[in-house]
Amino acid sequence: MYRPKPLSGRQGGAGGMSVMESELWFTVEDLAASVRFFTSHLRFHEALTGDGFTCLVRDDAAVDIVLRQRAAELPPRPAAGRPGVTVSFTVTGIIAEHERLRREDAPITTPLREAPWGEWQLRLTDPNGIVVQLVEWVPPAGF
């Protein structure tokens, strides 16, 4: 979430801009459903709510997520052929997290799997189609 900081003394790399923080904005059809998904399964919590939006944060290094209710006057997004969105979080303890998510009956769309190069990953999909990928790097033996 944007938090203003004093401008004095800031410099970007090679005299250019510096990225201070990041947040992802998603316009969704069902705001409450996405808020429930991110708070119950991914342990975000509401930091700020307003007319038609909710800002979700975590206490770790995760990027903030702002969910905005789609305006009623806008036509709905077409279901077929719309570009997909995947948010990827690099995590620790992915095996235990997978077990917790299964016990919660979370909407896991790609079960936990290991790639030959040592990356473990699983994917969930929120009720509005936002794909969340959890990844942990565990180098294979002898790597």
TrEMBL record:
InterPro entries membership: Glyas_Bleomycin-R_OHBP_Dase, Glyas_Fos-R_dOase_dom, VOC_core
SUPFAM superfamilies found in the cross-reference section: Glyoxalase/Bleomycin resistance protein/Dihydroxybiphenyl dioxygenase
Chain ranges of the VOC domain: 16-137
TM region positions: none
Stated name of the protein: VOC domain-containing protein
